[in-house]
């Protein structure tokens, strides 16, 4: 999940899920975004635009976040509270308990592309 970063300062004149169009330095630059492409590990690469039309941006500003970034910073995983329940001496009857909310809200769901 690589973020898209502005190479020049300018003004956003168009944005959607496919591309971001930036006007600056007297020319128009179209920045294509990665949309549901397969990575070499069969996971999904995808970029989400983080800028709106009409906004002025500076060089180095984040234009789109990848799957593993939030605001251009690495954001892997989620913190979750779990419980380990030993049963008479740490054997095969032990259990790790998690909330059903993790399943129902697709907290750890991922999809793979073949």
From TrEMBL:
Single GO biological process annotation from the record: DNA-templated transcription
EC category name: transferase
Domain DNA-directed RNA polymerase subunit 2 hybrid-binding: 6-114
InterPro entries reported for this sequence: DNA-dir_RNA_pol_su2 (IPR015712), DNA-dir_RNAP_su2_dom (IPR007120), DNA-dir_RNAP_su2_hyb_sf (IPR037033)
GO cellular component, one term: DNA-directed RNA polymerase complex
Pfam families listed in its UniProt record: RNA_pol_Rpb2_6
Gene Ontology molecular function terms on file: DNA binding; DNA-directed RNA polymerase activity; ribonucleoside binding
PANTHER family tied to this protein: DNA-DIRECTED RNA POLYMERASE I SUBUNIT 2 (PTHR20856)
Family named by the database record: Belongs to the RNA polymerase beta chain family.
Protein name: DNA-directed RNA polymerase
Lineage of source species: Eukaryota, Viridiplantae, Streptophyta, Embryophyta, Tracheophyta
């Amino acid at each position: 999940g690589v973020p898209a970063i502005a190479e020049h300062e300018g003004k956003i004149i168009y944005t959607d899920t496919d591309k971001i169009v930036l006007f600056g330095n007297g020319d128009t630059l179209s920045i294509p975004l990665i949309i549901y492409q397969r990575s070499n590990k069969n996971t999904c690469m995808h970029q989400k635009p983080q800028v709106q039309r009409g906004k002025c941006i500076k060089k180095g500003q984040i234009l789109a976040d990848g799957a593993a970034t939030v605001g251009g910073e690495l954001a892997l995983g989620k913190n979750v509270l779990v419980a380990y329940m030993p049963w008479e001496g740490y054997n095969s009857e032990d259990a790790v308990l998690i909330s059903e909310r993790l399943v129902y809200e697709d907290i750890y769901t991922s999809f793979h592309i073949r």
